[in-house]
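ZP: hey, is the magnesium ion complex queued? I don't see it on the tracker
AM: it wasn't, my bad. submitting now with these inputs:
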Amino acid sequence: LTPIQLSAERLQRKLSGEVAGDKRSMLDRYTRTIVQQVEAMKTMVNAFTEYARSPSQNSAVLNLNELLEDVTVLYHENYTEVTIKLELDPSIPLIMADGVRLRQLVHNVVKNSFDSIEAGGWIKLSTRGVKELGLQYLEFSVEDSGDGIADEVADNLFEPYVTTKTTGSGLGLAIVKKIVDEHSGIVWVEKAEQGGARFVVRLPAISQRDNKLQTQLQSNKDTEVMP
Ligand SMILES: Nc1ncnc2c1ncn2[C@@H]1O[C@H](COP(=O)(O)OP(=O)(O)OP(=O)(O)O)[C@@H](O)[C@H]1O
Ligand SMILES: [Mg+2]
């Protein structure tokens, strides 16, 4: 796809000096359409690849607060007209997770929030620890000041190809659901207090056994003596 884009851009550059008036604006318009549509196709191909990917095996101990701080720094730089609020509970439990996959999950949910709000809107990311039936979970939510979920998609948001966007693949949340399933978690959406959407992901905390193992591994590493 990149060669198509580059060729269109080259044609435009080469020919724009040779044609004038109406023809020139036509040339500009058509090349812009090609470049934009190819860009949309690229995004879609990436979404399909991501959706079809086999479950990952790269689990490691992960602190979601750190990942969220990392991710939001990038958004802050690119979307200065949107307020990103972070409400991270420093005492959240650690989880066993694939960092790359979780980053994708966060990105897909946050991107939907960005799509749903106007300039001047806000997005709130929060984390907390939850204990239920003696088990510990990490809960993470993304809330926005948008218009909330449209009725026509509300019942099957997490199914593939469900979208209200003209250029959307409808795979964003299907990928989110897949990643949550891979991590034995659950995900749901609710109405935010101010009317926007609030997506909540709950993932099992690292078990006591894993925790001990991890501490042991860490201390083995610390005491290792170089030959
Ligand atoms: N934060 C949100 N506010 C309002 N509607 C939302 C929000 N998140 C998701 N939706 C609705 O859910 C639909 C499905 O989302 P999903 O991420 O699966 O696909 P998409 O965003 O339409 O396409 P893509 O992810 O490829 O850009 C969206 O089209 C939108 O209607
Ligand atoms: Mg999306």
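AM: back. The chain has two domains: 2-52, 60-211.
ZP: great, adding it to the tracker
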